[in-house]
Amino acid sequence: MSKNLVFVLFFSFILVACSDSSQSIHFIKTTDGSTLNIDRELFDTVAAKHFLATGENLYIGDAEAIKYGKKRYNLWSCTQCHGPTAKGQVGPGLIGPDFKYPKDATNKGMFETIWAGTNGGMGAKGFGLMVPDDGITPDELLQIIAFIRSNGKITGNE
Ligand code: HEC
Q1: What is the 82 CA–ligand 1 centroid distance (Å)?
Q2: How many CB atoms lie within 10 A of CB 129?
Q3: Residue 67 DSSP class
Q4: Is pTM beyond 0.85 here?
Q5: Ligand 1, residues 72, 74, 122, 143: which to mutate, most atoms within 8 A of Cβ?
Q6: Can you tell me the distance from the alpha carbon of 123 to that of 118, in angstroms, rounded to the nearest whole number?
Q7: What CATH number labels 26-150?
Q8: Which bin fits 131, alpha (ψ -120 to 50), beta or left (φ > 0)?
Q9: Closest by alpha carbon to 148, among 128, 118, 91, 132?
Q10: Is the shortest distance between the CB of 149 and ligand 1 below 6 Å?
Q11: Element (H, E) at 140
Q12: Residue nearest to atom 31 of ligand 1 (CA)
């Protein structure tokens, strides 16, 4: 291999490594618009890491993830307030296209709303926020969101 090629390969590698670790979306609380800090260690799957870097939810349209998300949606009692197909019950419908918090039309926005809650009756559900060692993990939340989106027309990745 020529010296030049080794050089190019080496620097491409450094570039990829750097962009991977520094690229990350900025989460914002739905309650007051301030910065929402979430422990990066909790983003421990391919889909969760991809979401942290880009805001895109890879589970949208994924049948397995939607099935799992539906189970978790029931387990965390979302059903009681938002109905079995997320079309609303005591709480509002979640399939859009109109939302009380317009950013919930995006997966990043909906993630922030569910993770840290709202001021109008939705408690924070993110890991460590209800009790220190329990709560919805990022990967789980992405699958719950995939289930919610599967009941409507918008994907949130638009
Ligand atoms: C105790 C009832 C209750 C439970 C349980 C609950 N929610 Fe909610 N949720 C609400 C209410 C009430 C609102 C409206 C909040 C507001 O107006 O600020 C809301 C709002 C939301 C919104 C924002 C909707 C919009 O139009 O912007 C999302 C998304 C949401 N909930 C998802 C969930 C998910 C997912 C779960 C389960 C992990 C869940 N909620 C569990 C009562 C509940």
Answers
A1: 7
A2: 16
A3: H
A4: yes
A5: 122
A6: 7
A7: 1.10.760.10
A8: beta
A9: 91
A10: no
A11: helix 138-150
A12: 122
Q: Is any ligand 1 atom within 6 A of the Cβ of residue 114?
A: yes
* DSSP label of 92: P
Q: What is the pLDDT along the chain (158 residues), one digit of tens a residue?
A: 667 766 666 666 655 555 555 579 999 999 999 999 999 999 999 999 999 999 999 999 999 999 999 999 999 999 999 999 999 999 999 999 999 999 999 999 999 999 999 999 999 999 999 889 999 999 999 999 999 999 999 999 99
How does DSSP classify residue 142?
H
Residue nearest to ligand 1 atom 6, measured at CA: 78
> How far apart, in whole angstroms, are the C-alpha atoms of residue 29 and residue 119?
10
Residue 54: both structure tokens together? 């880009």
Cα of 12 to ligand 1 centre, how many Å? 44
- 99, 131, 137: which is closest to 148 by C-alpha? 99
**Tokens describing residue 48:** 């969760």
97: preceding bond cis by omega (within 30 degrees):
yes
Residue count (the chain): 158
